[in-house]
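Reproducibility note. Readers wishing to regenerate the assembly model reported in the main text can use the exact inputs given here. Chain order matters: entities are listed in the order in which they were concatenated for prediction.
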Amino acid sequence: MNLAVIGVGYVGLVTGACLADVGNHVSCMDRDAGKIARLERGDIPIFEPGLDEVVRRNATGGRLTFTTDMARAVCDADIIFIAVGTPPAEDGSADVGRVLEAAMEAVRYIDRDVVLVVKSTVPVGTCDRVRDAVQALLRTMRSPWKVTVASNPEFLKEGSAIDDFQRPDRIVVGTYDTASLTLLRALYSPYNRNHDRLIAMDVRSSEFTKYAANAMLATRISLMNELARLAEKVGADIEEVRRGAGADPRIGHHFLYAGVGYGGSCLPKDVSALSRLAADNDEPLDLLAGVQRVNERQKHLLFEKVGKVLGDLSGRTIAVWGLAFKPNTDDIRDAPSLVLIRELLAAGARVRAYDPVAAPGVAAVIKDPDLALVGSARDACLGADVLVVVTEWREFKSPDFRWLAKTLNQPAIFDGRNIYDANYVQECGLRYFGVGRGETVIEAAVVPVTA
Ligand SMILES: NC(=O)c1ccc[n+]([C@@H]2O[C@H](COP(=O)([O-])OP(=O)(O)OC[C@H]3O[C@@H](n4cnc5c(N)ncnc54)[C@H](O)[C@@H]3O)[C@@H](O)[C@H]2O)c1
Ligand SMILES: O=c1ccn([C@@H]2O[C@H](COP(=O)(O)OP(=O)(O)O[C@H]3O[C@H](CO)[C@@H](O)[C@H](O)[C@H]3O)[C@@H](O)[C@H]2O)c(=O)[nH]1
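Running the prediction on these inputs yields the following structure tokens for the assembly.
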């Protein structure tokens, strides 16, 4: 099929590249000329494992092209995907201005009947708005063409986006008519061969499904983070609790990790947009208000813990491992690391931070002579008092603890992701502070039992 994708961010570029990879001809359009110029040179503007290979393969083959010219992008297209951003507005709602803008601009240049697919995450009712605006435009233009709007929210995760797209748990499609459902079913058939993963529904339910899924994920994390705080107070270890509770298949082990709060471009903004939608409909979601409060508080946890141990932070040097909001991405949108670093700097500390890919993003938003973004995990620890682990990149999982114990001035690790074996870390000569696993619990665990 001939496809156009409007917006080549994390979702648009992955969608375009993967759909080209199964044989479609895809024209990707973005209004950011710099991004398009880089893509035309074969330079991928974001870090997403495996993406460069899929983009290059298909760009070289001529099935994947990039342009800033909407007319070029949509000519010949049977399906147009809208994958532009829907950032939070001041009142917490999702700003769908770009979606409407992109849809209207695309429709001006169509040269056949098309299905216009909204892939961006949008509040319930947005596709109706797009449909009405587009129909009005077509009438004004006296266009001979028919445009059918459909909803097809995306569920990929950054860091595993290619795999998520190519092996989806589900493909949610909301349509107003059966013809566009048939077309989308055909488009997604390469991913749907043995198990029918396509879940067809009405448009409003499809829009809602995306928010419901992210709200449930966020709730799970906030509940674990709240339980972690209590565990620490009452002398339990949240890691043991997680293993025990997660063994119940109704609960499951996935997405049950206490940490430093959820970040990224989706969970925070989508929970806030859903809360806004609920308030606007006189159906406030009390539970989600708590989920958001717990998450905001959790982002300060590491700073509080470091302060409790070191006291006055002025003149101290803190090593920070991990800046991206999660491993395997360069995305720092709403990253807990930014909250920690800003608090440390405001308290007069110096920060030496390392991340395998996300440092340039942080350099662009925090410009402070007391923040050094260094080239390796070890380098971050040189001259530092303590080490704080914010993002669980693979390369941080098995450090040389004895070297750390010799190098850090006040040998202590603050493990914001509970990735280390607390007993072993302590045996190597470091104090250990995790999330929901107080130091006292760990010490108690190594006291030999006397008969
Ligand atoms: N990032 C994710 O993991 C993820 C996953 C699922 C869903 N989503 C949703 O998908 C949407 C896109 O997210 P993203 O992270 O890819 O965003 P992004 O910010 O990475 O990319 C959006 C792109 O759209 C372009 N753009 C904006 N307005 C435009 C216009 N009028 N015409 C052409 N281009 C325009 C921007 O220049 C940018 O390159 C959002 O609604 C988001 O909530 C994101
Ligand atoms: O047990 C867990 C799992 C995740 N996180 C944190 O939660 C945030 C979000 O992680 P994740 O969901 O893996 O990443 P995203 O790429 O933001 O993906 C979410 O948001 C996307 C955009 O809507 C959806 O498509 C995905 O399905 C949904 O998982 C990160 O800060 C993680 O560190 C935890 O603290 N504990």
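We highlight two features of this model. The pocket of nicotinamide-adenine-dinucleotide (ligand 1) is lined by residues 6-12, 29-32, 35, 83-86, 98, 101-102, 120-121, 154, 156, 158, 265-266 (CB under 6 Å). The first strand starts at residue 2 and ends at 6.
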